[in-house]
Amino acid sequence: MMKRVFGVNKEKEKQPPLTSIEEASNRSTKRGESVDEKIRKLDAALTRYKEQIKRTRPGPAREAIKARALRALKQKRIYEGQRDVLSSQSFNLDQVASAAEEIKDAQQTVKGVTKIGQ
């Protein structure tokens, strides 16, 4: 009866394997590079808009170009914020990897010293 009310416990979904610190850092770096590429494209678009604004006479067409330029500028600022976050994450991951390596080295040193002392 209880199985009908609450159901049967299914096998837990398989979790993806844990990634190493280096893999996480590499992924973060790759995402940062893709964000940099988006920022470069937006810079090129902003340059085009600036030239178009210079050539266009005042009026609705010029205002439409200005609106597109402002939208591109807002997107650029958002991407720059994301890039900053990703670069700080990558830096933090590199620091953790370095600390982990130092701990492993210290463990090896202690093992070597204890073998010599025996």
Automatic annotation (TrEMBL):
Key word Coiled coil present: yes
Stored Gene3D superfamilies: 6.10.140.1230
Region span, Disordered: 1-36
Domain of life: Eukaryota
Segments crossing the lipid bilayer: none
One of the GO biological process terms: vesicle budding from membrane
Entry annotated with the keyword Oxidoreductase: no
UniProt keywords, alphabetically: Coiled coil
InterPro entries for this protein: Snf7_fam (IPR005024)
Annotated GO CC locations: multivesicular body
Pfam families in the cross-refs: Snf7
Family in the record: Belongs to the SNF7 family.
Protein name per Swiss-Prot or TrEMBL: Vacuolar protein sorting-associated protein 60.2-like isoform X3
Origin species: Punica granatum
